[in-house]
Amino acid sequence: MRRTHPMRGGIVWRVLLAVLVLAAAGLAWLAYDFGRFARTPLAVAGPGQTIEIERGSSLRGIVEQLRRRGLSGASPWYWRALAERQRVAGRLHAGEYALPPGITPAALLEDMADGKVLQHTFTIVEGWSFRQLRAALAGALKLRHDSAGLDDAAVMQKLGAPGEMPEGRFLPETYAYVMGDSDLDVLRRAHAAMARTLDALWPQRAADLPLASPYEALVLASLVEKETGRAEERPQIAGVFVRRLQGHMLLQTDPSVIYGMGERYDGNVRKADLALDTPYNTYTRAGLPPTPIALPGKAALAAALHPAPGDALYFVARGDGSHVFAHTLAEHNRNVACYQLKHCL
């Protein structure tokens, strides 16, 4: 019988042992390096950076985008292993994600799996016209501009309100949106918010108002919005307009005249402008103008439906945003002379 040489058998075992030790060391190093990768922040240079993931993007495509931008030099295999470990592979959502300094690969994958897309905001300002609203929306970043090229009537058709005049119909508030949303989405939400607000406020209105409908309240609120420089004066301004309507007096409000002038307005209202009849000239036509002249906020709507009591029928601007109120024309003329013409007695 042939016998194995003892020395040769010992060498084989030592080689096998060395291989096992090296393999274990390699696996340990790989585990350490993988853990370091998962915990090490991406190379984000500063605040404000984002990553945009298009619909249908694969994990490999996402990793390639990170590599191109110098945010991560790790192997795609590491990213795949991390996604599998976190059980998020195959359920990463498209969208725009914030990359704050210090964010790790593990945190980024969790954000994508949870759909924590970056939110942007757009503020509709009280007193804007619909034209100003559309111009501001056209400049909003990360928003699809689906209304570009549409006239106002077509926009209202898209919003499900065909034939409705858009002026005044959108509630001034701050609206959140995400990349991929449309400007029509923002308008649709603002339109619905104004309708809900009017529906809630109209039944609680003060008694004996000279308003036949919520739309007339919207028109009046728009006048209040444009005439008011200080928030606390809104109910007083509304009170003057309501008493003038009740007394069948002309409203004589310059912002409505200016709205009717359109592009002819150059920053000044002259006597000829006050005499030129348009549907919005409240110096030549009685009652409310035919439509709102701006977007009134909630406070202006509340003031129009709950005007302050009193006997004032006139007001004039002081020049600091506030107004002086008067009951008689003679008193009003003295106030005009003092605060507008600087001829105070």
Query: What's the total helix number?
Result: 13
The rounded Rg comes to 34 Å
What is the mean predicted local confidence, pLDDT? Answer: 89
For the record, the count of structural domains works out to: 3
Q: What is the global morphology?
A: elongated
Structural class: mainly alpha
Distance between the termini: 137 Å
Q: Report the portion of residues in β strands.
A: 5-15%
Low-confidence stretches: none
Sheet bearing the most strands, described? Answer: 2 strands, antiparallel
What is the N-to-C succession of helices and strands? Answer: HEHHEHEHHEHHHHHHEEH
- Order of strands side by side in the largest beta sheet? 1-2
Helix content range: 40-55%
User: Would you report the number of β strands?
Assistant: 6
Describe the model:
The chain has 345 residues and is mainly α. The chain has 3 domains: 40-117, Dna Ligase, domain 1, CATH 3.30.1490; 119-200, no CATH class; 211-339, no CATH class. Helix content is 46%, strand content 8%. It is built from 13 helices and 6 strands. It has helices at residues 6-39, 59-68, 76-85, 105-114, 130-138, 152-158, 183-201, 214-227, 234-246, 254-261, 271-275, 298-305, 329-339, and strands at 50-53, 95-98, 119-123, 174-178, 314-317, 323-326. A two-stranded antiparallel ribbon has the order 1-2. A two-stranded antiparallel sheet has the order 3-4. It is elongated, with a radius of gyration of 34 Å.
